[in-house]
Design goal:
five-stranded parallel beta sheet; 2 domains; 7 strands; 320 residues; Rossmann fold; 47% helix; alpha/beta
Length: 320
């Protein structure tokens, strides 16, 4: 058995890869490649990763991994939550699956991570304002697993060997036609060129615009599940549309770049330690790993809810 372990991390097209693999299960099986049901939830193997991160579920994790180890052919296991496994959990995977293992990880520009991670947290019910989230990440960068990806990779390297790590640029992979990161995974990782791509695959875990994120955040503050309301409630959608118009004057922008100490050091650390391991064809940056050297992060100032009476009234109407 040869295992391909896709560890994400979060916000690097993992959901699109997982949904694409699920859609092509039959085609992959014909090629002796398995995307198994073991520890499966939603589109990926999240139950396995979650069990590994919880000591009380140690037996469950062992059962999952032991079952994976018994499968013939090539086996693909994917969950972005593997990127949050402790070194002890990674060692456990190696102990139970001692054979041929390839670890796949996509690397996203550090400039894109703060807004992408903040939005992901809002989608999961958090209420922190963007400026507070950004400040926290810049002050304590290695407390966030996406900023600390270099350290995360050390545990995988120690247990599986640097020669068994495949590291790719997410920015380069997502630009591929006919499936973006999923197309990249199929062609470059699995060597499969014939597959189906379902409509909307690249936007399956889509980003929201500034008004959509701020609407979700405000609903979360009031104790509601903002994401669910924005997807299902006409009143919530009307509130978002109103915020798009009335909130535009409260749009704020922050410029981040690799000249800033935190971002410069994060990229340098990644390149110094892992530069030789990153697939050469993916290194498109000029003077660095990532080609885009600056980025404007745009968001809506929450003061809009206080300053605009009709917005406040519409928010109350949604939450009744």
């Amino acid at each position: 058995m040869g295992l391909i372990l896709h560890i994400g991390p979060h916000k690097t097209g993992t959901t699109a890869i997982q949904k694409g693999l699920l859609d092509n299960r039959g085609r992959l099986a014909e090629l002796d490649i398995r995307y198994p049901e073991i520890g499966f939830h939603y589109y990926g193997h999240h139950k396995i990763a979650e069990a590994l991160t919880q000591p009380r579920r140690a037996d469950e994790a062992t059962q999952y991994l032991s079952a994976i180890a018994q499968l013939p052919g090539t086996v693909v296991v994917s969950s972005e939550n593997f990127s949050k496994c402790s070194p002890e959990a990674v060692a456990r995977i190696r102990e139970i699956i001692p054979g041929d293992v390839t670890v796949v990880c996509y690397l996203r520009s550090f400039l894109e991570i703060p807004y992408a991670w903040w939005q992901e947290q809002i989608k999961h019910g958090k209420t922190l304002e963007f400026t507070a989230c950004l400040s926290e990440m810049l002050l304590r960068p290695h407390q966030n697993h996406l900023f600390g990806i270099s350290r995360t990779l050390e545990a995988w390297c120690e247990n599986f060997g640097e020669e068994n790590l495949r590291l790719f640029s997410y920015e380069a992979a997502r630009e591929l036609p006919d499936g973006g990161t999923f197309a990249h995974f199929m062609k470059t990782v699995l060597g499969v060129t014939e597959y189906t791509t379902s409509p909307g695959l690249q936007t399956i875990n889509r980003s929201f615009d500034a008004a959509g994120v701020e609407t979700m955040r405000a609903l979360n503050v009031l104790g509601w599940q903002g994401l669910a309301l924005l997807q299902d409630s006409p009143a919530a959608k009307a509130l978002r549309d109103l915020l798009r118009v009335r909130g535009e004057k409260y749009r704020r922008s922050i410029l981040v770049d690799y000249g800033t100490t935190t971002f410069r050091m994060l990229e340098k650390s990644l390149l110094d330690r892992w530069g030789k391991a990153i697939e050469a064809s993916e290194r498109l940056g000029s003077g660095g790993l990532f080609p885009e050297r600056s980025k404007v992060l745009s968001f809506l100032d929450p003061v809009a809810w206080v300053a605009e009476a009709d917005l406040a009234a519409a928010l109350k109407n949604v939450s009744r």
